[in-house]
Design brief:
This protein is mainly alpha-helical. 70% of the residues lie in helices and 1% in strands. Helix 3 runs antiparallel to helix 8.
């Protein structure tokens, strides 16, 4: 190499490169999408009143993958095997859905295939749950099934929460920043670069999506965000297990599975909540509706911006709560998070019944 950069400088450049790629490419994508009429039209359960381009995920995909690949190769790092092919496959699935529309079951099958690629062939697995639901060590076959399920659930959690301006992008940015911070503190540079690439891309995307949306994520953006964050979450859990086994307790987190859940808490809890509601009323869990928490806030009179900012604060609160109680057992911390989430939902539902403007 002709010159050498410190890890800190590489991390900063990774974030900035992803940010700049999205900033530069998004206006071009907007123009092309409008020329080709690749727009999300208002109506039905849609919460916007004008036609908006839907290919913002292309910019997020490009910024994240180019920035990460560039600086990972510069440092000569090894990372999760088959991760880049998995991201490319999911990108193609999302692109087809954005342009031609595919059925929910077909999309789910594609997500399972992508998850299997990195879990089975890339050996990205959750091998212990630290006592959550009574499970500690997990045998190989259940570990593969549970890890595939984890990846698919997180992908869909971000896909389903992408319902108002800036929500999926902002929550993804918060989650990626949290993972990046821990990976940096524990000197896991490759994973830190992955999370920082995503964070830089999402921050730039919010410029075009949060206040007055000029473009939406489409299907590509939330699915890519969910896939990368699922990789970060599984690695976070497994690295904490390794740190415990070798006696390295610097930044070790005892309740790592539940803290990983907390880093993704709002999307995961909202997915669980709407799936329970849909099954209870006899609907398919994959059929879209207006039972998400952001719909509750919109019906209560909050604007898109106000709803997203409020839910950012909720996500940060649960992250900080989990970090504060990180030395508890996982089986003790999880009920605390669920109790807090149910209290928030109860408060939001009460507020909606009292102040609902669109009931």
């Amino acid at each position: 190499m002709f010159f050498s950069l410190s890890f800190t400088t590489v991390c900063i450049f990774t974030f900035l490169t992803a940010f700049l790629i999205v900033c530069i490419s998004t206006p071009v994508i907007i123009r092309v999408a409008r020329l080709k009429s690749l727009l999300d039209e208002p109506g039905g359960r849609k919460l916007h009143n004008e036609s908006i381009p839907t290919l913002g995920g292309i910019a997020i995909f490009s910024g994240t993958l180019i920035s990460f690949s560039l600086f990972r190769d510069y440092l000569g790092l090894n990372d999760v095997r088959f991760m880049i092919p998995a991201i490319l496959c999911l990108f193609l699935i999302g692109l087809k859905d954005d342009i031609l529309i595919i059925s929910p079951w077909t999309k789910l099958l594609g997500q399972i295939t992508v998850a299997g690629l990195i879990v089975f062939f890339g050996d990205l697995r959750i091998t212990s749950l630290y006592g959550v639901l009574g499970f500690t060590a997990i045998d190989l076959f259940p570990s593969i099934l549970f890890s595939v399920l984890t990846v698919v659930v997180i992908i869909n959690a971000f896909n389903l929460i992408d319902g108002i301006n800036g929500l999926a992008g902002g929550i993804g940015l918060i989650s990626a920043s949290a993972f990046a911070t821990w990976f940096l503190l524990t000197n896991n540079i490759g994973l830190a670069l992955l999370a920082l690439s995503l964070a830089g891309s999402l921050l730039a995307f919010l410029i075009f999506n949060l206040v007055k949306p000029k473009i939406f994520m489409g299907e590509i953006g939330p699915m890519i965000t969910g896939l990368i964050l699922s990789i970060c979450a599984i690695q976070f859990i497994e690295l904490n297990k390794h740190m415990e086994s070798v006696g390295n307790f610097d930044y070790w987190i005892r309740a790592s599975p539940v803290v990983a859940i907390a880093f993704l808490f709002l999307p995961l809890f909202d997915l669980l909540r709407v799936f329970i509601i849909r099954i209870y009323i006899g609907k398919s869990p994959l059929v879209a509706d207006t039972n998400h928490i952001h719909h509750t806030l919109i019906r209560s009179g909050f604007s898109h911006l106000q709803s997203s900012l409020l839910l950012y604060l909720v996500q940060i609160f649960f992250m900080l709560l989990a970090i504060y109680f990180r030395d508890l057992r996982s089986s003790h911390l999880l009920p605390i998070l669920l109790l807090g989430a149910m209290l928030f939902v109860f408060t939001a539902s009460w507020y909606e019944k009292r102040y609902c403007l669109k009931c």
